Write the structure tokens for this entry.
Amino acid sequence: ERETKKMFLQFLLLLSAVRAFAPAVRQDSRCLQSATIPSSPSTAAASTTGLFAISDGLAMTLKKSSKTLSVLLDYDSDHDSDDKTTSEGDLITLSMQLRKIKASAIVTADLEAARVFVEEQRTAVGNFPEPCPIIYHGDNIAGAAEAGVSAVIVSGAAVDEDAIDLTTGGVGVIKTISISEAGKDDTIINQDENAFLIDGDDEEDASALLLGGAIPSGSVIIASLSSMQDENEELEKAKRLKALGVTSILLKKACVGDGEDIEYASFAIDGMTKKKSSTFNMSGLTGSTNGHFGGVGTSTTATWLRTKKEEEAVAVAAS
């Protein structure tokens, strides 16, 4: 009889442990789904909350349960640079490196680059780091859907039939909105939609949208910011926007195909996701060797050769 009771107690303990473990397993499964690139538009996870929406998996990637900002990195192929590299091999390497530094998503208006990014990210399915989503914001929406992107960005004032058709193929839709559009047309924001992009550099407009109650509760709210601002102001802006309810930051022209892409992307992701100041703490030789930062072991505001070259080009053109 004692042996029977002992076995029964052991069974109860085992059952309790299984029940406690099950939610964690389900959460891990959802996290894996959130980062997986669809193998094709027809097999992609369809949007679940509305006509213009993103999948639950992508929403979990862009709106972290930890309340940490997600950082999306824009690749701009039109940027002029004397050390620019844009071959397919370069794009494959860039895609792999951005995944390794834990970019939340790669955003581009270059359809061919989007195709390369999607294919490269698929090679990481089942590995760590997991694939990061590819989001398209160019004009060829149908082509982007065919390429297998996770979502497209469309203007709230100019949503067309191509964007509507995307939801049936499982491609998410992120709507760009501004206070002027919302003010002119009260139907610009639908309460069934769940992902919006606002201009974070226009903090007055952004504040009005975020505090005005027009954006549905629980939405993914992405704020775009210019990269490499003076005194690293994008990091401070990100903090202020997060306090207003922004869940994600899209850094415009973070990557352009030059030698600073990964250095800047790493700096920005660290500065926006870790609890530290906006100064860059040098612990290695990379920054000081390339002339971007202060001496080794110092804390200083980061400066970038890319912006210096742009300023010099403007000065030459004006002279």
The beta strands are 70-75, 105-108, 134-136, 151-155, 172-176, 195-199, 220-226, 248-255, 280-281, 299-300. Residues 2-35 form the longest helix (34 residues). Confidence is low (pLDDT under 50) at residues 15-36, 38-50, 280-299. The chain is about 45% helix and 15% strand.
